[in-house]
Design a protein that fits this description.
Elements lengths: L4 H17 L12 H24 L3 H7 L2 H52 L3 H6 L2 H30 L2 H7 L5 H15 L1 H8 L1 H9 L9 H26 L20 H26 L9 H19 L8 H29 L5 H4 L4
Helix pairs in contact: 1-12, 1-13, 1-14, 2-11, 2-12, 4-6, 4-8, 4-9, 4-11, 4-13, 6-14, 13-14
């Protein structure tokens, strides 16, 4: 299949829309602790959705995984474990910083570490990235993306200075910049490990293609393994919090242990968590599709993914009134952020397009016979 970077950008935007939107259904969960709804939603994200869609869209998934070398399985699972640490603290970041600022801070670190380090580890950064026009154009797009992320951080810090404590907590109940920034930093760096897990899964992609799976779906079996690692970390952390906070009863009990003894809407909570979880999974469902369209510069997929996540999470932040009461100056920073990130996706997409063009001999470029 011939790469189509324009189609790849569309897929990455759809993945960004899913990632930027998945946390919204969690806001409808009533009288459950964070660790409870995070684990329920995660079960749909990291176990049910990967297996259901993997079995449906690819050929011989169990046989492909059984034939995969143990070393490959280990590294995919290992990077998934580390990514899970970032994913677990992602939820804390949302609690302390909200969708807009939280996403921007996490994705800044995640974009830098997840985009640039894989080609460095592969030893092709100098030859395939710095050594080609298309690679240098993509690097410009990455730099523009990081500039947009910095602008998002500036907008968030400006908002934090302007609003009173009451105004901040009216929208983000646990808003705390001092706690949120360190947590977001850790989350962003560790979340970049997902990119390494996908790269480690290249042998799985080759195996599933040999079993007749379409090129477009070759990344789905890799997600099964990487997300299992992420589930392990999140499961341990969430159960630990359930025990410490004595919230384990929430999975099965309708009665909330409070003086009011309010009833917990169990069915609605499970449905909203399922919706959030499946929506989350679709970010990487579309990501793996987009990656197949980016040619030899598929490492740039991570930048496109991060930029689109921030764009859509910022739009959700506006819709959910997280920027209510902010000054015109702060809103201008937010507008610059969105504009810059859209520009970065266009530059990265153009760089990938240049990479699909056939090489032109030097003599013909300068008009020599």
């Amino acid at each position: 299949m011939t790469p189509n970077p324009a189609l790849g950008v569309v897929f990455h935007w759809l993945g960004g829309l899913a990632s930027g939107s998945f946390y919204v259904p969690f806001r409808c969960v009533k009288r459950w602790s964070w660790e409870t709804y995070w684990l329920v939603g995660g079960f749909f994200s990291w176990i049910i959705a990967p297996w259901v869609l993997g079995l449906w869209m690819t050929n011989d998934l169990p046989a492909v995984l059984a034939a995969t070398p143990a070393r490959t399985i280990f590294w995919c699972y290992f990077w998934g474990l580390l990514w899970g640490l970032g994913n677990a603290t992602f939820g804390l970041t949302m609690r302390y910083l909200g969708l807009s600022l939280g996403m921007a801070t996490i994705m800044g670190y995640c974009a830098a570490f997840g985009t640039l380090l894989p080609p460095v580890f592969d030893g092709v950064f100098g030859s395939s990235v710095l050594g080609t026009v298309s690679g240098r154009v993509i690097l410009v797009g990455v730099a523009v993306c990081l500039g947009g992320i910095a602008s998002a951080g500036k907008a968030g810090m400006s908002k934090e200075k302007e609003l009173s404590a009451e105004a901040k907590t009216a929208v983000i109940k646990e808003f705390n910049l001092r706690k949120g920034i360190p947590v977001a930093t850790f989350s962003g760096v560790m979340s970049a490990c997902f990119s390494y897990g996908l790269k480690a899964g290249d042998p799985i992609k080759a195996l599933t293609l040999s079993h007749g799976t379409s090129t477009l779906w070759q990344g789905l079996p890799v997600l099964v393994v990487v997300l299992l690692g992420g589930f392990t970390t999140n499961f341990i952390w969430s159960v630990f919090l359930n025990v410490r906070n004595k919230t384990g009863h929430q999975y099965i009990s309708r009665a909330e242990r409070t003086p009011e003894a309010a009833r917990i809407p169990m069915l609605a909570n499970y449905l909203f968590c399922a919706l959030a979880g499946v929506t989350w999974y679709f970010q990487f469902f579309f990501y793996t599709m987009g990656e197949t369209q980016m040619g030899k510069y598929k490492f740039s997929s991570w930048t496109l993914h991060m930029a689109s996540i921030i764009i859509f999470s910022s739009l959700w932040g506006i819709a959910l009134h997280e920027w209510k009461g902010a000054s015109a100056r702060t809103r201008t920073w937010l507008f610059v952020t969105l504009l810059t990130l859209v520009l970065s996706t266009m530059i990265v997409g153009y760089g990938n397009y240049l990479g699909t063009l056939p090489a032109t001999p030097l003599t013909s470029r300068i008009g020599m016979p």
